[in-house]
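Cross-check.
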Amino acid sequence: MKNKVIIIIPNYNGQKYFLDLLPLLATEKYFDFDLEIVIVDNNSADGSREYLENNYSQFTLIKNKENIGYVGANNIGYQYALKKKAKYIYLLNQDTIITKGF
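Predicted model, tokenized:
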């Protein structure tokens, strides 16, 4: 059985950042663990939710009804990860730039 790894990405009006970050997360091959990407959206008004639903339905999207802030979104994602029994939990900023083969 592979280890469960969850990456939590809090979002508030960050659709422009997803153009760089999410394609790599969606296409990178992960052989040694079971990876789940969780995006916790703080009631964005820039089309982020629709963009994620239309382009990255393989990711888990948690929709907050209000902006509870960066820490609040991370806490919601963390609670989700605990329920999923993730062995490793990573917090990733929405504006993170990663390179191929990370």
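The first helix runs from residue 15 to 27. DSSP finds three helices and four strands in the chain. Passed to J.P. for a second look.
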